[in-house]
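ok trying this again, last paste got cut off
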Amino acid sequence: FEHDIDTLKRLRHPLIPAWLADGVWRGQRALALQHVEGVSLAEIMVGMKKPLSTATTLRVGIDLLRALDHAHNARSE
């Protein structure tokens, strides 16, 4: 958990919520992250009558992969 917190503190990416604080709450390690307004992809898809377009699916996938790449690179530093 400590290693993950240290990694999260270094992350600066628009698609990854920022670290705000960490500590102990009710005897358990706790982590506070930036609040992100919006709806989840699952909520969007529930309201749709058809699957996401290919372009939207690719955009979401590419964004996720970029955020994951950023996190992996920060972890290896």
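PB: full thing came through this time. The chain has a mean pLDDT of 89.
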